[in-house]
Amino acid sequence: MLRALSAAAAVVIAAVGVAFAAAEADHPQDYPFSFDSPVGSYDMASVQRGFQVYNQVCAACHGLDHLSYRNLGEEGGPFAVYRVRDHETGEPTLQVGRPAHGGTFVDVVDNPYVRAIAETAMINDIDPNSGQPVERPGRISDRFRNPFPNEIAARAVNGGAYPPDLTVINLARHGGADYIRSLLIGYDGEVNGTLYHNRYFPGGWIAMPPPLGEGVVPYTDPEVPQTPEQYATDVAHFLQWTADPHMEERKRTGIVVLAFLIVLAGLMYLAYKQVWRGESH
Amino acid sequence: MSGPSTYEPASGFTRWLDKRLPIIRLAHDSFVAYPTPRNLNYWWTFGAMLSLCLVTQIVTGIVLAMHYIPHVDMAFASVQRIERDVPFGWLIQNIHAVGASMFFLAVYIHMFRGLYYGSYKAPREILWILGCIIYLLMVVTGFLGYTLPWGQMSFWGATVITNILGAVPLVGESIQVWIRGGGSIDQPTLNRFFSLHYLLPFVIAGVVALHVWALHEAGQNNPAGVDVKSKADTVPFTPHATIKDLFAVVLFLILFATFVFYMPNALGHADNFIPANPLQTPPEIVPEWYLLPFYAILRAFDFNIGPIDSKLAGVIGMFASIGVLFVLPWIDTSRVRSMRYRPIARQFFLIFVVVCFILGWCGGQNPGLILAKASDFTATLTYVEGGQVVTQPVTAASEAQFDDAAAAAREALTAQGATMTAVTREGATTATATGVIGGTQATRTVSGHTADEMETLIQEVKTEIGAGAAFFSVERRMPYTFTVTTLSQLATFYYFFFFLVLLPLLGLREKPGRVPDTIAKPVLTEQGAA
Amino acid sequence: MLRRRAARFATRTSLASAPNQGREIKSVAEAASAHAGEDTTRRDFIYIAAGAVGAVGAAATIWPFVDQMNPAADTRALSTTEVDLSAIVLGQQIKVMWQGKPVFVRHRTADEISRAQRDDFASLKDPQSDAERLVQEDGQPGRPEWLILQASCTHLGCVPTFVEGSSFGGWFCPCHGSDYDTSGRIRRGPAPANLLVAPYLFLNDTSIRIG
Asked: Which of A16, A268, A280 sits opposite B247 (nearest CB)?
């Protein structure tokens, strides 16, 4: 005898739309990023390309509110500049990225690349003389330009969806860089109104249209393929750096601290044995 | 302190100082000459680690307060600024966040040690209660601190926890508004939580001083649980206990540093990197790991107990689970302190430890998660293909007579030749009765692993045959399921059963093993044998 | 016996300062050697090594907690200010903020300039020529019509006011009555030195960068 838990509900059937199955999202693809291991560091070439992808694609809708242009040229940043002496002429030249040996870090104030990047952005400000809102070229101390003045404006333009800030997105999503990379290449072309099917997105339907197409961002290095996979990998790499800019310093310090503590533990153990020598306990 | 002071000032200055402020004498008697049982094991080194944790949290916290801004619009960004721009801010912030977890890890080991070796029994009741007060203050401080980064978990955790206070009868809502400083978690809440988070650690430090005072008055317990009887039972605190504590502290620091430098966010939750949004609740709200067992107890009460509704019952259960620790010295009737010599109680204690871990696991899971079930979820759909649908309004004279009216309407439809009838209620006394005349009746059965899966299948069948069929009835058969909530209920039951029934009964019934007369005796005989 | 020795150790500990670390550790060695009277050298080595390594660790730990109070990266990034000179008419000055402090950018008249140059040879409390006070950050000579000064009286830090027709034609500090000339040099009053020149650089004819 069946126990009817619902009262025999009579339903005169109307046409029922296809219910979207709230399927579990796929587990993100595991990509071997260079920063994955405990001693891993950033691949700065990839971070630089990722910045290019962000700047030319993502920045149309997503902000990087906690990042300033100067961060790009600070030590550990993708556009950090070092002064190195030429082997033959002895002339000092500027080089992006830490040289294998020698070289002195150039303060970000004197970093021509970062200054150029900042100046291409138009920043909203208040004119110091008139007090009126103006747009002016960016300075290195400026925060990254946010495409929208506020969340309401962002939602209004994007059909009610809010493009989240990307500064710490890799920390704010389970799966981190793997998830971001997978999401960007997880579209299968299925569209429902303003929603796009993406097998890595919880719920399966995301408001962001597929952002990356073949060759949309021109890379200068001819060796690097200009495919959505490569773009996604680079931008996920860049966003890992924006989320955790001190990672390399943190890991380097960690090795020293742990080595120190292990030595200290050994010495403490010997001292402990000495003190308790001959004491029954 | 135990016995007269053995401090002898060595120089003219210390003699002068000793007459005016005997602070060196106090330190000497407390931390140098203080007689320590010689059989203390490594479980006794966690007091030193806890002192280190408290100092670390206070020092890093003061530093963070120099840079943190307790404002709803700026708190999240100011934490990011600490991580990015403040010199060594990333290090100090990580130490503070990981330090909270390390503090709780050490305090739990310290508490389990106290439980196992009976450190709460006479003459250490006050010592134990002071420890419980410190633990409660730690929980409150940890909760307040978790609010400050103003991420999604901060905001919603604070919302949920302050709602717990609303469960208190009569005054609950007033207390809730008073704590929040408004109807919801907002600027006033953040500002006062910051202030209190800064204050409470110093209160903790004060209670710790009392805790240490009580410890030195009653003397340390030890693994054998027998009192110190002579000087042969003890060694001086310095250097013996000091060096052992230092060694253990360095090992603890290795674990601490591993988290700080290699897994700084492993103990946190990803959602707290999303700025607080009062308009959107995260898919699941979980507290920090160290509060998960209590969260499981809170959620285990999904039923009303007489006049107490489930919400209040959960709150009472949660507070009782800590409250029971306060009265533990009087609940446990056994005269033997150490469970080393209590063979039966020891088994139940080990189960208790496992149960605490189970509660912690449950607290982090979706409460509806099915762990086991008697059978699949099945539903039988009965429907009529073809036929003609007829409806009839139902109106009852009063609410009490509704069922009669509905039955009468269905009978009337059946009398007209309807093969299936149903009543859809629309109001207290009104409804529509629907019947179908003619057609052929058919059934379909679907089954799924979860109720959701079954519902999806029912929808599919309805869609599939909907065009031809005018009329459905669905009978769902829900199997018995063993969910995370069920497991939490069992674990919660054992938690209280252990304290309230097992410990009092065992103390009276259990036959303890042979307890040594002195600390030194078994130590010396073991040494001799070896 | 052991207790007594341990007690002595503690007394020393509480008074010990960094230089006699070794001595302090040695007394622990004595405490332990009460039981076993062999290889004291090895024992001493262990105690000294453990103590020294621990002390180094403690010292290294202090640094981040000190350094965190230094200016943060965002504060340091704001350490330059650019000023558009085209809006400042002859005989006017503006006050701009540089690193949170006011700076005078004065467009001097020919009269002010000649007066400043004439006074190069007057008796000065803090002798300095007008030309020296115009030198840019990179050592290049400045332009006489533009004077860039930190607006902070060298006495106790008040902001001086430019007073037309004052005794020396320049700034007057209302707090304690220090008088500065048209080059910002101290001429009378309690201030010990000239107004400080802010480090600046001409980026082009109409704009400068301070800092």
From this structure: A268
